[in-house]
Amino acid sequence: MARSNIRYGLTKGHPTTAIPKTVRPSQRKGVQSARTKFVRSIVREVAGFSPYERRVMELLRNSKDKKARKLTKKRLGTLLRSKRKLEELGTIIQESRRAGH
């Protein structure tokens, strides 16, 4: 709220203008740039999938979700990374089904 010259209440005090806060590099961490996204898509297109990713995709196609989750967690280290990878590979499988049929 903007301040007014009233001596009491929520807007008490001298009228001031708010200075917009600058974004620190630490607050920007994890935000993907357009260049990075493009480069990763090119690398994925050229190099394809790693052997464990192919195995996980096969497990997902055969509805062995728990086995796939355990495998990705062992390879990637944490459950959150595992979930993200499964989500990514699941969307790739769905896109290939749409393109194939």
UniProtKB/TrEMBL annotation:
Stretch list, region Disordered: 1-32
Matches recorded under Gene3D superfamilies: 60S ribosomal protein L36
Pfam families: Ribosomal_L36e
One GO term of the biological process aspect: translation
Keywords: Ribonucleoprotein, Ribosomal protein
Example of a GO MF term: structural constituent of ribosome
Superkingdom of the source species: Eukaryota
InterPro entries to which the protein is assigned, alphabetical: Ribosomal_eL36, Ribosomal_eL36_sf
Assigned GO CC terms: ribonucleoprotein complex; ribosome
Family: Belongs to the eukaryotic ribosomal protein eL36 family.
The protein's name: 60S ribosomal protein L36
Originating organism: Postia placenta MAD-698-R-SB12
